[in-house]
Amino acid sequence: MFSTFLIKYGEIAIKGKNRHLFEEALVNQIRHALSKVDGSFSVMREQGRIYIDCEGSFDYDETVEALQRVFGIVGICPVMKVEDKGIDELAGDVIRFLEETLELTPQNVITFKVMTRRANKSYPIPSMEVNSELGGRILEAFPGLQVDVHNPELVLHVEIREKIYIYSKIIPGPGGMPVGTSGRAMLLLSGGIDSPVAGYMIGKRGVVIDAVYFHAPPYTSERAKEKVVDLAKLVARYTGPIRLHVVNFTDIQLSIYEKCPHDELTIIMRRYMMRIAERFAAMDGSMALITGESIGQVASQTIQSLSVTNEVCALPVFRPLIGFDKQEIVEVSKKIGTFETSILPFEDCCTIFVAKHPVTKPNLKVIQCSECKLSDIIDGLVETAIDTAETITVE
Ligand code: ATP
Ligand code: MG
User: Fold this and answer.
1) I want to staple 193 with a disulfide (CB 3.0 to 4.6 A). Which of 163, 200, 342, 395 is the partner?
2) What residue ranges in 137-269 does DSSP mark as E strands?
3) Are 10 and 172 in contact (CB under 8 A)?
């Protein structure tokens, strides 16, 4: 019965002159998402609307799920498309629509209204008259229904174009902005719960995501790395392809461990992660870094620690989870499907070298002083880490 979807988009409709750029990006993202679904689809942009026509057989659920991962989409309306054969035929189609898709019977008691939009101005009947004509015919077929123009339980939309589109259901989309409309940023992606959620949230604002992962073989295993690749794939279902740089961090960590006070390990390590991430950002054209940090979650995420970590970065650092409780982050990770992978029990390079009592209020001067102890080797180690990084593009 449905062979067309009408796509509703909110925020991007108000972007003035740039509007067509946003619409183009949204159409591209929709095409990309549907290229992974069985079926043949054509995506059209027409008078401030996006339509998807499905030719031949297609999997309805799979199609809707794919569209629900496209940022910028606010609502997905499954549409019944009929030929224009006059108002009598149309009334019959509308009644069939109500019977078949909403399973309405003459016994149902609900309020409704008809909303007609006449995009084809040569259609002979004005929209208000179409509303009242169809409304009357619906009342005859379903005597339990009642018209309520202010707050109806059911809104029946009728759009008159070359063909006529009938729909009532609006399936929620993810909202946000289409990826590709807000530049590019570099996500520090670990195997935890938080950073995939952070990447999702910034992607939702239209940002293309790249990622960097620091591992420490043989202290961290190949499985731990695979887990991060899997997480990147899950985030990429929303954001599109991600270039993931896998950096061997072992020698840097061992030197920090050897030369610096143990209670400062995490903070110094985090500063090197940020420095290296910024180097990759420069290479990839990323304009910001993204982390999964949230105030007070662990010692390295007190305001003092965050500010000492931040000090090494020239780029803005986006921390979309900064004000979230763990439980709230877990909820998003379940919703986007990363949670089950995030909780797989593989060691993390941070947990292996972590001190029993890390500093919670690091002092910048003290930390800089500790880093001086690395001065004769660290530059070489950083260059080697960057040069030997493996880049994996995940889809
Ligand atoms: P997550 O659940 O994202 O791992 P976390 O609660 O474990 O976060 P930390 O380990 O302190 O917190 O890491 C804070 C942030 O630093 C992470 O959200 C991530 O952005 C980044 N990060 C930590 N470890 C790594 C790593 N091995 N590779 C890349 N980024 C990392
Ligand atoms: Mg972590």
Assistant:
1) 342
2) 146-147, 154-160, 164-167, 171-172, 184-188, 208-215, 242-248
3) no
**DSSP string computed for 157-183:** EEEESSSEEEE---EE---S--TTSS-
Q: Whose CA is nearest to atom 31 of ligand 1?
A: 190
Among the atoms of ligand 1, which is closest to the Cα of residue 228? 28
Which residue's alpha carbon is nearest to atom 22 within ligand 1?
190
- Which residue's CA is the nearest one to ligand 1's atom 17? 292
Question: What are the beta bridge partners of residue 8?
Answer: 75
pTM of this prediction? Answer: 0.92
Amino acid at 87: I
Best probe residue, ligand 1, of 187, 194, 341 (max atoms within 8 Å of C-beta):
194
Does residue 347 have a pLDDT over 90?
no
Ligand 1 pocket test, candidate residues 189, 195, 227, most atoms within 8 A of CB: 195
Q: Which atom of ligand 1 is nearest to the CA of 351?
A: 10
pLDDT tens track for 98-143: 999 888 888 889 999 999 999 888 999 999 999 999 999 999 999 9
